[in-house]
């Protein structure tokens, strides 16, 4: 336990600190609950993206043989730009996906196989889904970090600071009470001696 002064000023300081902790703790607990909900929400969205990617890969499987034909599909699907911005959830800065843009060159309809248009659309969707999932995973990392910090603060207030401050208040009050009792006893003894002297003198 930290060393404390056994004075009225220290007692007031400890009481003020306790009020602050008790006022701040519910806000921290609310933030913790909000972060837990957000983490669960983002985890669910990531899982949903994984399932969509798996379903898309299954849809893509029959095309794989076609992709092995001597045609450069990658030339038709080029990622041009991924635009993100910064959002805010429960005071946490998180990346938000604004747009995924592709450069699309028009194929020569006479020289390209008929499956190229559909194949390109599926590839673009797959790329977009993976980018969205990566952004969600970054959001999840940021939210989990903040949740860990907030949980540590809640525990600090709940299990350390508040009990410690209450104990300080209890110890100071006992000390001040003892001091007051001792002062009253000394006053009575002094008064008794004074009246003895007065009686003896009279």
Describe the protein.
The protein is mainly α and 202 residues long. It has a single domain, classed as Helix Hairpins (Orthogonal Bundle), CATH 1.10.287.3240. 72% of the residues lie in helices and 12% in strands. The chain has two helices and two strands, in the order H-E-E-H. It has a two-stranded antiparallel ribbon with strand order 1-2. A hairpin with a 2-residue loop joins strand 1 and strand 2. The longest helix has 86 residues. The two termini are 56 Å apart.
**How many helical elements?**
2
Reported for the largest beta sheet, the result is: 2 strands, antiparallel
Question: How many domain regions?
Answer: 1
Radius of gyration computed on alpha carbons: 36 Å
Order of strands across the biggest sheet?
1-2
CATH fold name:
Helix Hairpins
**CATH level 1 name:** Mainly Alpha
How many β-strand stretches?
2
End-to-end separation in angstroms reads 56 Å
What is the succession of H and E elements? HEEH
Would you identify the CATH architecture?
Orthogonal Bundle
Q: Approximately how much helix is present in the residues?
A: over 70%
The 3D shape can be described as rod-shaped
Structural class: mainly alpha
Mean pLDDT score: 85
